[in-house]
Amino acid sequence: MSEPQASRLAAVASPAEAEQIIARLGSIMDNLLAVVDEETALLRGGHLTEASKLGMKKAELARHYIDDAERLKEGKQSFAQAMPETLEMLRRRHEEFRARLQINLTVLATAHAVSESIIRGVSGEIARKAAPSTYGANGRYNAPAPRASQPLAVSRTL
Fold first, then answer.
1. Cβ distance 123 to 149 under 8 Å?
2. Structural domain count of the chain
3. Per-residue model confidence (pLDDT) at position 72
């Protein structure tokens, strides 16, 4: 974390302030999970363009989440004994949050792997079609040389 951001995020000073931040953190988690669930559903349905449009909203909510979580962590000693049940509830909620994010990350990784596989397949097919079909001295088909492959351009705007 940069020095200006660290000074901007003052530690929680009182249990009342901690309650406010925990309530806001719960709201942020709800909103972030709604975006993550929508993104997961879109990715599973193959709607990559629509899913990519959620990135900015997800990043903004994640930034707010991290900021509030850091503030709570920094000031934990000042209110931890006054509200142990609230902190335990927050821990449980965070574990549920983490599990749902893991599902989203798995879907994102799968979409990435599938996309990469498709691109590699297209690239290989272009290289195969561009290479001459010849046989070597041993009577076997000569595979195209890796250096002979054509560059492949991909448009990210669909």
1. yes
2. 1
3. 84
3-state secondary structure the chain: CCHHHHHHCCCCCCHHHHHHHHHHHHHHHHHHHHHHHHHHHHHHCCCHHHHHCCHHHHHHHHHHHHHHHHHHHHCHHHHCCCCHHHHHHHHHHHHHHHHHHHHHHHHHHHHHHHHHHHHHHHHHHHHHHHCCCCECCCCCECCCCHHHCCCCCCCCCC
Query: Which one-letter amino acid corresponds to residue 134?
Result: T
In a domain, 158, yes or no: no
| Residue 20 placed within a domain | yes
Model confidence pTM above 0.90: no
Q: Which two tokens stand for residue 83?
A: 């509200």
Calpha distance 114→116 (Å, rounded): 5
On the question of pLDDT at 92 being above 80, the answer is yes
What's the mean pLDDT in 89-101? Answer: 90
